[in-house]
């Protein structure tokens, strides 16, 4: 059985637990240091909007609710959104994808192609919003490469589709099931975050921190190219590591 078969089999078995919530400016050169670890930023966000009602929505919503945030789930499948909301503990509302966006931070919890499409369709509704791209744009036909060409990333393409949004890459290296608890092997998840708008990036880092994880500034949005490679690698490693989809990518020693 190949890796892709393993992946498909695991996906069809739904790797994310179905349990209820556990608790409530760029240069083209890479020669200069580009990251500054934000020091325990406070999240100013009150409502998080998540578009999609799948596994990652479950994970990220669970963490945000545990941190005391309000969550708005917008999905094309109203029944799926309502069913998910009913399982979560906390202040959750649902609506269609084109409903008014309540959150200042919007997570696109969609496959890459859909995220790109929805980002373009929502257009002005995303202006000024922090838009979090969590996608791993894997070529699922081969499970051997990404569908974005070298030199760009899903996040950078989504930023082009929604030029007035402040696009941040994050959560693509954390598996959905692990987000439900926010930890792996007793260690808080690292949420690696990249973006060109410092305030937007700090907000996503603060969201992760407030939800019991560790947000880590991974640099400008172009670092999404590397984050997406890491996310893809983490997926392919499941074939070696027992196909549990319960592992975490973490930087130790800092
Ligand atoms: N699962 C993970 O562990 C994990 C980890 C890191 C990153 N990610 C990334 O997170 C994203 C979401 O993954 P997931 O596991 O949550 O996927 P999922 O469980 O399959 O959920 C995907 C959601 O997107 C919706 N959707 C699909 N196409 C759409 C469209 N054209 N318009 C509107 N909604 C659409 C689906 O709605 P329907 O049910 O109506 O199809 C569903 O609600 C993906 O980009 C993935 O690469 C996943």
Automatic annotation (TrEMBL):
<protein>
    <submittedName>
        <fullName>Reduced coenzyme F420:NADP oxidoreductase</fullName>
    </submittedName>
</protein>
<dbReference type="InterPro" id="IPR028939">
    <property type="entry name" value="P5C_Rdtase_cat_N"/>
</dbReference>
<feature type="compositionally biased region" description="Low complexity">
    <location>
        <begin position="13"/>
        <end position="45"/>
    </location>
</feature>
<keyword id="KW-0560">Oxidoreductase</keyword>
<dbReference type="InterPro" id="IPR036291">
    <property type="entry name" value="NAD(P)-bd_dom_sf"/>
</dbReference>
<dbReference type="GO" id="GO:0016491">
    <property type="term" value="F:oxidoreductase activity"/>
</dbReference>
<feature type="compositionally biased region" description="Basic and acidic residues">
    <location>
        <begin position="1"/>
        <end position="12"/>
    </location>
</feature>
<dbReference type="InterPro" id="IPR051267">
    <property type="entry name" value="STEAP_metalloreductase"/>
</dbReference>
<dbReference type="Pfam" id="PF03807">
    <property type="entry name" value="F420_oxidored"/>
</dbReference>
<feature type="region of interest" description="Disordered">
    <location>
        <begin position="1"/>
        <end position="45"/>
    </location>
</feature>
<feature type="domain" description="Pyrroline-5-carboxylate reductase catalytic N-terminal">
    <location>
        <begin position="48"/>
        <end position="137"/>
    </location>
</feature>
């Amino acid at each position: 059985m190949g890796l892709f078969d393993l992946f498909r089999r695991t996906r069809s078995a739904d790797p994310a637990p179905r349990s209820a919530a556990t608790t409530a400016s760029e240069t083209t050169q890479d020669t200069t240091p580009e990251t500054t670890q934000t020091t325990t930023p406070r999240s100013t966000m009150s409502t998080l909007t998540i578009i999609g009602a799948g596994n990652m929505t479950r994970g990220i919503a669970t963490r945000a609710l545990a941190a005391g945030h309000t969550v708005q789930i917008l999905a094309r499948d109203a029944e799926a959104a309502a069913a998910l909301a009913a399982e979560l503990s906390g202040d959750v509302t649902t609506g269609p994808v084109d409903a008014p966006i309540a959150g200042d931070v919007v997570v696109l919890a969609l496959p890459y192609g859909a995220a790109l499409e929805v980002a373009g369709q929502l257009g002005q509704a995303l202006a000024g919003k922090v838009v979090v791209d969590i996608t791993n744009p894997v070529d699922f036909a081969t499970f051997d490469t990404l569908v974005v060409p070298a030199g760009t990333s899903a996040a950078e393409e989504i930023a082009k589709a929604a030029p007035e949004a402040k696009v941040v890459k994050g959560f693509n290296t954390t598996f959905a099931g692990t987000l439900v608890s926010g930890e792996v092997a007793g260690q808080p998840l690292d949420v690696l975050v990249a973006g060109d708008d410092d305030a937007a990036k700090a907000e996503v880092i603060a969201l992760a921190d407030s939800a019991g994880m560790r947000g880590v500034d991974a640099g400008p949005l172009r670092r999404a190219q590397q984050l997406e490679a890491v996310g893809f690698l983490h997926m392919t490693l499941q074939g070696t590591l027992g196909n549990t989809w319960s592992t975490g990518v973490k930087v130790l020693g800092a």
